[in-house]
């Protein structure tokens, strides 16, 4: 289905990016001296990001003593050969230039000339766009429902629809997903219905999660999407373990985990990336760098050049991509996935974007950022309008289809909301089941006690939970 | 001192007082093994019986700092038995992911003192994995093993007993064996139990305790306490290495005419209240002993529960002989520990109340 336009050069392009952004030496002449005096075999070793340096014995080259030039001496420390330098040289804290960002569609949705991308069929492109629209409408309707008091809580994905949908479209259904909480679009792409979303948000008896968690904590084993937990970045090491399992079982699949710029500060981020590299696990780390962790801008979050440069520290191949460019997202994820599985390696993808919505319904982001800024991103840098321009210019979409889609989805969404609201809650026994595979004695006793108490004080308990 | 302990451990004869039909394992003969060898055997059996099981953690490749994983990498390969980076949150997080895909992930934390970086993964992820997903997912294949407890010279960070933190977490199980034969059977049960389990191994007994361990594959049930010594005057409840100390106290109490009933709890979460309740209803007195600090220790949970269930049958207050409320000290360890004589004094006080 997907036809890579410049497939033969894509791998070397990535290596070029690695070399290009080599953390620089102090001066060019020092760099030149290193290149001149190195044994060529050493260069190859040091350029290969995943070579395992197994040598822990210090060896002296037989040429020591023969070669008086101190610059030619090389010693093995645990970890492999390193050249010496008599200069005090620090690796700069940052490159002179920021890592460039891969994009294919310009701000107006026009294809950039000479761009590399993975071709999508009309069917896939139209589904991608439709799902982005559906996600947007679902978000708006759920948000309003919370404001009206019908839902206790909600968190939108506004502004990040392209990351959600395009990444999902580039994966296979067997790839296992470990989300943070702003990736319902991945579920949507895979077939989670509007009714299922609504059921979870209302915690009714049709909720997969049996009413145990807050809204937007979706999960579906049928769709290989692990249940959301609100704890930040805990899913990252889990994804690495799952990826290792897929590798050991020789599946043609990878694990994919999402997190935000805030999540990258958690210890679990460092744990996971390091493990993924050492275990050679086929896992994609997709960071939605949307500029904000609730009210904390990225300048208060880290001092590196975003996320993309962190991959190298762990020996992980990385790419920065325009998260609001659906075509670029699709291509990057598609390419990364193939590398991850065929080369048994992790890949880090930093998707730059902007969190247009508030953090959640418990947040009013105008308290820490300007309404103008939000509005600009919503209008001028909207991922939906860019992609829409492209599919329209490809002859695959029209205004009529747009309005048909929007009115149909809106109607479906409102109906799903209505049905979910009316559906009764799960039975009380679901409070005590699944803590363990089988309820132990203490829980059976506690259920008995609770039921007794309910008989004595029925007014203390919600009437919509069947007993 | 070590040799003396070794002799007295062997003399006390772990498990020789078999109790009940299900304790048929205790009457079987086997090879004489110490605790780390028994655990090693269990791991060999676990990996052999399930090809989708894995053992990993710091330094497990060469056999582990306590030799519990000896021979596993050579036999089952480095893809299934491997070293991890030095990162407990990563080790457990990775293990949860492996288990979530239906594998058995048998994780080693080098010392229980270092388990805390993994506490978030254990409490917020492992313990809730099944419940929060509506049983769509689970990580029941996860077993976390960690050496715990006093060793004579371990100080703050090689002696801790953190079981109480974990007993407060619905969704996981906490198991502590008292001897080599128990450890093998309990560990195999933990590995095969469809819930995530934390298995604390009394490191003091790794070499000190030697006992006949049947060579075949056997399992000892979880959440079943065992009366390892019958008596009528007072019930003593403990787990792990502390039971050897308690048993010494029971022997000396018997010389003074006090008949002690000693119970090994084995599983602390979910714990077998019924066995302890039945015993206390018989004896009317309860003494709990553990190395962990007394305040907030698991003895408090046992005491509160038994008070609720056996109040009218009690002849004396429930007493706890435990570690003190200090970080585990080095030079002062003998003062910190719940010794045989502290226990014996408490037995007498309780009986004479």
From TrEMBL, chain A:
Coiled coil: none
Gene behind the chain: LOC104708190
Pfam families noted in UniProt: E1_dh
Annotated transmembrane regions: none
Keywords tagged on the record: Oxidoreductase
InterPro entries membership: Alpha-ketoacid_DH_E1_comp, DH_E1, THDP-binding
Sequence ranges assigned to domain Dehydrogenase E1 component in this UniProt record: 132-428
Species in which this protein is naturally found: Camelina sativa (False flax)
Name of the featured protein: 2-oxoisovalerate dehydrogenase subunit alpha 2, mitochondrial-like
TrEMBL record, chain B:
Keywords: Oxidoreductase
Occurrences of domain Transketolase-like pyrimidine-binding (ranges): 33-208
EC number: 1.2.4.4
InterPro entries membership: THDP-binding (IPR029061), Transketo_C/PFOR_II (IPR009014), Transketolase-like_Pyr-bd (IPR005475), Transketolase_C (IPR033248)
Pfam families: Transket_pyr (PF02779), Transketolase_C (PF02780)
Catalysed reaction equations from the record: N(6)-[(R)-lipoyl]-L-lysyl-[protein] + 3-methyl-2-oxobutanoate + H(+) = N(6)-[(R)-S(8)-2-methylpropanoyldihydrolipoyl]-L-lysyl-[protein] + CO2
Highest rank taxon of the organism: Eukaryota
Keyword Transmembrane helix among UniProt keywords: no
Cofactor needs: thiamine diphosphate
Entry protein name: 3-methyl-2-oxobutanoate dehydrogenase (2-methylpropanoyl-transferring)
Gene from which the chain derives: LOC104778418
């Amino acid at each position: 289905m997907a036809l890579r336009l410049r497939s033969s050069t894509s791998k070397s392009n990535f290596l070029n990016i690695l070399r290009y952004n080599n953390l620089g030496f102090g001066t060019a002449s020092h760099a030149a001296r290193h290149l001149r005096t190195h044994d060529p075999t050493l260069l190859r070793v040091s350029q290969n990001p995943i070579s395992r340096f197994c040598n822990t014995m210090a060896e002296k080259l037989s040429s020591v003593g023969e070669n008086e030039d101190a610059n030619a001496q090389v010693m093995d420390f645990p970890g492999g050969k390193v050249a010496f330098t008599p200069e005090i040289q620090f690796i700069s804290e940052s490159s002179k230039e920021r890592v460039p960002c891969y994009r294919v569609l310009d701000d107006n949705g026009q294809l950039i000339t000479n761009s590399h991308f993975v071709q999508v069929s009309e069917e896939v492109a139209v589904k991608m766009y439709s799902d982005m629209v559906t996600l947007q409408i679902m978000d708006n309707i759920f948000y309003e429902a919370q404001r009206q008091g019908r839902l206790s809580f909600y968190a939108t994905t506004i502004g990040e629809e392209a990351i959600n949908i395009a990444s999902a479209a580039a994966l296979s259904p067997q790839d296992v997903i470990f989300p943070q909480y702003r990736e319902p679009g991945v579920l949507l792409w895979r077939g989670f219905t509007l009714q299922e979303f609504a059921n979870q948000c209302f915690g009714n008896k049709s909720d997969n999660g049996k009413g145990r968690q807050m809204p937007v904590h979706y999960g579906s084993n049928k769709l290989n999407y692990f249940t959301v937990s609100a704890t930040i970045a805990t899913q990252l090491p889990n994804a690495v373990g799952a990826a290792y399992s897929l590798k050991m079982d020789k599946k043609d699949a990878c694990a994919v985990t999402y997190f935000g710029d805030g999540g990258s500060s958690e210890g679990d981020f460092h744990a996971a990336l390091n493990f993924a590299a050492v275990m050679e696990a086929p896992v994609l780390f997709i960071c939605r760098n949307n500029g904000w962790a609730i009210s904390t801008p990225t300048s208060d979050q880290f001092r590196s050049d975003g996320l993309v440069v962190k991959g190298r520290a762990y020996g992980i191949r990385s790419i920065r991509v325009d998260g609001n460019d659906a075509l670029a997202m699709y291509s990057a994820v598609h390419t990364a996935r193939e590398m991850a599985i065929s080369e048994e390696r992790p890949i880090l993808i930093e998707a730059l974007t902007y969190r247009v919505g508030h953090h959640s319904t418990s947040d009013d982001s105008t308290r820490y950022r300007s309404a103008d800024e939000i509005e600009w991103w919503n209008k001028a840098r909207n991922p939906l309008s860019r992609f829409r321009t492209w599919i329209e210019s490809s002859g695959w979409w029209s205004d009529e289809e747009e309005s048909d889609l929007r009115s149909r989805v809106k109607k479906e969404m409102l109906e799903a909301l209505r049905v979910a609201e009316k559906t009764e809650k799960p039975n009380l026994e679901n409070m005590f089941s699944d803590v363990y595979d089988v309820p132990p004695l203490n829980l059976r006793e506690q259920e008995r006690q609770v039921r007794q108490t309910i008989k004595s004080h029925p007014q203390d308990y919600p009437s919509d939970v069947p007993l | 001192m070590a040799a003396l302990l070794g002799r007295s451990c062997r003399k006390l004869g772990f498990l020789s007082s078999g109790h009940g039909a299900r304790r048929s394992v205790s009457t079987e003969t086997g090879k004489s093994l110490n605790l780390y060898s028994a655990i090693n055997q269990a791991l060999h059996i676990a990996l052999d019986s399930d090809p989708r099981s894995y053992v990993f953690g710091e330094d497990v490749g060469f056999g582990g700092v306590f030799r519990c994983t000896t021979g596993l990498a050579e036999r089952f390969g480095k893809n299934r038995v491997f070293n991890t980076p030095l990162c407990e949150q990563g080790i457990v997080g990775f293990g949860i992911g492996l288990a979530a895909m239906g594998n058995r992930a048998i994780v080693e934390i080098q010392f229980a003192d270092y388990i805390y970086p993994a506490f978030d993964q254990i409490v917020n992820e492992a313990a809730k994995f099944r419940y929060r997903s509506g049983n769509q997912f689970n990580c029941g294949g996860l077993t976390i093993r960690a050496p715990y407890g006093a060793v004579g010279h371990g100080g703050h960070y090689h002696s801790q007993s953190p079981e109480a933190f974990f007993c407060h977490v619905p969704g996981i199980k906490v198991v502590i064996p008292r001897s080599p034969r128990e450890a093998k059977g309990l560990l195999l049960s933990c590995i095969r139990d469809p819930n995530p389990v934390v298995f604390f191994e009394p490191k003091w007994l790794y070499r000190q305790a030697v006992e006949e361990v049947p060579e075949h594959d056997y399992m000892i049930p979880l959440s079943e306490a065992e009366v390892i010594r019958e008596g009528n005057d007072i019930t003593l409840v403990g787990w792990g290495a502390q039971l050897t100390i308690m048993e010494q106290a029971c022997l000396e109490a018997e010389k003074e005419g006090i008949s002690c009933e000693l119970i090994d709890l084995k599983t602390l979460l979910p714990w077998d209240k019924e066995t302890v309740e039945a015993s206390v209803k018989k004896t009317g007195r309860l003494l709990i002993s553990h190395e962990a600090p007394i305040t907030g220790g698991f003895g408090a949970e046992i005491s509160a529960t038994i008070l609720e269930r056996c109040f009218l049958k009690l002849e004396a207050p429930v007493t706890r002989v435990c570690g003190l409320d200090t970080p585990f000290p080095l030079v002062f360890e003998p003062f910190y520990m719940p010794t045989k004589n502290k226990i014996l004094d408490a037995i007498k006080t309780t009986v004479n109340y």
